[in-house]
TrEMBL record:
Gene (UniProt): lysA
UniProt-listed InterPro entries: Ala_racemase/Decarboxylase_C, DAP_deCOOHase_LysA, De-COase2_C, De-COase2_N, De-COase2_pyr-phos_BS, Orn/DAP/Arg_de-COase, PLP-binding_barrel
Residues modified as N6-(pyridoxal phosphate)lysine: K48
The name this protein goes by in its record: Diaminopimelate decarboxylase
Superkingdom assignment: Bacteria
Residues where substrate binds: R268, R304, Y308, E335, Y363
Enzyme class: lyase
Family: Belongs to the Orn/Lys/Arg decarboxylase class-II family. LysA subfamily.
Annotated GO MF terms: diaminopimelate decarboxylase activity; pyridoxal phosphate binding
Length: 383
């Protein structure tokens, strides 16, 4: 199913803006439900990927939970209709106010990332007369074979605790007041496009569960995080990620205990392909050795190329069948890193042509800034 861009409608809109294909989002959500059919699997949407209210309401109506990494995300989720008991809360730096908010909303679980945090949650929960349900986030030291900025499960990452520290954390959680230890939490990275790291994660979890069961400790919940990648190069060939392979990997390799829940926190794979950043060509600048297509979108609207050296497929949606030329596609921001693509092969461009930067539904609009005092880009939805 190809995304259809209503060019005539776009021509009257001020660019840049985000466009979301709700039919593709609907198909994606249905595919997640179909492939995560094991009743023990619980899927939470990672709100940090995209917190557009229209997107959130759509995902909430489909029956998913939500994964938050700040108190503001918790408030945003509640406003979108998510129940507190469907919210899990991660993050290495939870403030006292954020912890209080989570307890007030009776959230499903705090994913705890350090001993000091665990002690503070216990203290605040005791003061409030609440019980905090927690999972301990563990770094399994697995290389996810992804970008260093989005690898989160290695021993040297800031997230979670190292494996050798887990026994002490478990013992502490079992003794602190107003703490209910539900399970273990893992997240090894993002944009993972092969199953081997997930198989290795399963093997680590199986070993840990066997070890703790021998000590009489069981976990009612295992949280596997997210991390499933998408095809940025070919969004039309693979508009929906391989959820079948992803969930089957865990079904086949994770030794799930009776009555145990297995939680997933998917973000990019849910929303990335349904979103595109639409921008207009301002000028075609002829250099001595190359051509520049200067567009009105910049790194303030989509920062991933400048931040990660990420690449989004660029399409000329005004003139898709023109003669091919090579361009550096750059924005108007006063930074040399404000570049969406170098030596891009595109149908001939002229002033006023509309371009679509594909696969921008995740970490696009949500990471926009007002750098150079530019306004935030608006968003529009397909019917």
């Amino acid at each position: 199913m190809m995304t259809r861009f209503p060019i005539e409608e776009f021509s009257s809109l001020q660019t840049p803006f985000y466009f979301y294909d709700l039919k593709l989002l609907d198909r994606t959500l249905k595919e997640i439900k179909r492939t995560a059919r094991d009743s023990r699997f619980k899927v939470h949407y990672a709100i940090k990927a995209n917190a557009n209210p229209g997107i959130l309401r759509y995902i909430q109506a489909a029956g998913f939970g939500v994964d938050c990494v700040s108190g503001w995300e918790i408030e945003t989720a509640i406003e979108a209709g998510f129940r507190g008991d469907r919210i899990v809360f991660a993050g290495v730096g939870k403030s006292d106010n954020e912890i209080r908010l989570g307890l007030e909303k009776d959230i499903e679980c705090f994913n705890v990332e350090s001993e000091p945090e665990l002690r503070v949650i216990s203290q605040i929960a005791t003061e409030m007369g609440k019980t905090a349900r927690i999972a301990i986030r563990v770094n399994p030291n697995i290389d996810a074979h992804t970008h260093a900025y989005i690898t989160t499960g290695l021993a040297e990452n800031k997230f979670g605790i190292n494996l050798e520290m887990l026994p002490g954390m478990v013992a502490l959680a079992c003794t602190l007041p107003n703490i209910e230890l539900k399970g273990l939490h893992f997240h090894i990275g993002s944009q993972i496009t092969e199953n081997e790291p997930f198989v290795m994660l399963c093997e680590t979890i199986n070993r840990l569960q066997d070890e703790y069961e021998s000590r009489g400790i069981t976990f009612s919940s295992i949280n596997l995080g997210g991390g499933l990648g998408i095809d940025y190069a070919h969004p039309e060939r693979h508009p929906i990620p391989d959820f079948e392979g992803y969930f089957t990997t865990f079904h086949n390799h994770l030794h799930i205990r009776p009555d145990q829940e297995v939680h997933f926190e998917l973000g990019r794979s849910v929303v990335a392909q349904c979103g595109s950043l639409i921008t207009r060509v301002l000028y075609v600048k002829e250099g001595t050795t190359k051509k520049f297509a200067i567009v009105d979108a910049g790194m303030s609207d989509l920062i991933r190329p400048a931040l990660y050296n990420a690449h989004h497929k660029i399409e000329n949606i005004t003139n898709p069948n023109g003669e091919l030329h090579h361009y550096d596609v750059v924005g108007p921001i006063c930074e040399s890193s404000d570049c969406f693509g170098q030596d891009e092969t595109l149908p001939a461009l002229k002033r006023g042509d509309l371009l679509a930067l594909r696969s921008a539904g995740a970490y696009g609009e949500i990471m926009a800034s007002r750098y150079n005092c530019r306004p935030f880009p608006p968003s529009y939805f397909s019917e």
